[in-house]
Amino acid sequence: MATEEELFANIDALLEEEPQLPPSAERARLGEAAGITQARLATALKTSTQTVKNYENGRSEPKSPRLEAYQRLLNGGAAKYPAHGAPAAAPAPAPVPRPESVPETFTGPAGARDVRGGDGPGPGARCRGGAGASGHAPAVVVAPPGREEGREARRRPSVPAWSARGAGR
């Protein structure tokens, strides 16, 4: 079993390692969010603009003492400008309005009528054998209000188009 002293020594060794920089895209985002141009950063770090461009696109990383200075800038930017524009504490979501009472079953548009004839099951009935034995709901044929009786109504298939039924299984 490790002693407390060993564990603390291991942690201290980790803390003494060189600081890790965020990914290059995050480096560039933080500079933009802070409004610091690459030229201004280069002046502050006493290096060239091209070197700062290389830092931001991940081609190179600064060496000490520039590394610590650059890390300080990035840490300050990350605290001030969290990733994805998310504020440090997210605001509570706005309440979602509840819909008024909704009927348990949808019976179609107001004034629609079933044009299948009087001997079939009502809307929403399930097939229990025969051609509809797959358990799919039967085709519902509904004529919109004002549609003539003699015209053929559009039929909705009882099997979804993506179904493999009838495809040579």
List keywords for this structure.
DNA binding, 33% helix, DNA-binding, Lambda_DNA-bd_dom_sf, two-stranded antiparallel ribbon, 434 Repressor (Amino-terminal Domain), 169 residues, mainly alpha
- Integer average pLDDT: 73
Instruction: Please work out how many helical segments DSSP would assign.
Output: 5
Shape verdict: elongated
Please report the total strand number as a whole number.
Answer: 2
The CATH architecture classification of one domain is Orthogonal Bundle
Secondary-structure element order, N to C: HHHHHEE
Strand content: under 5%
CATH superfamily of one domain: lambda repressor-like DNA-binding domains
From the 3D structure, determine the CATH topology of one domain: 434 Repressor (Amino-terminal Domain)
What is the CATH first-level class name of one domain? Mainly Alpha
Radius of gyration: 34 Å
SS-derived structural category: mainly alpha
Low-confidence stretches: none
Keywords: DNA-binding, Transcription, Transcription regulation
GO molecular function: DNA binding
Pfam families: HTH_3
Organism: Streptomyces lacrimifluminis
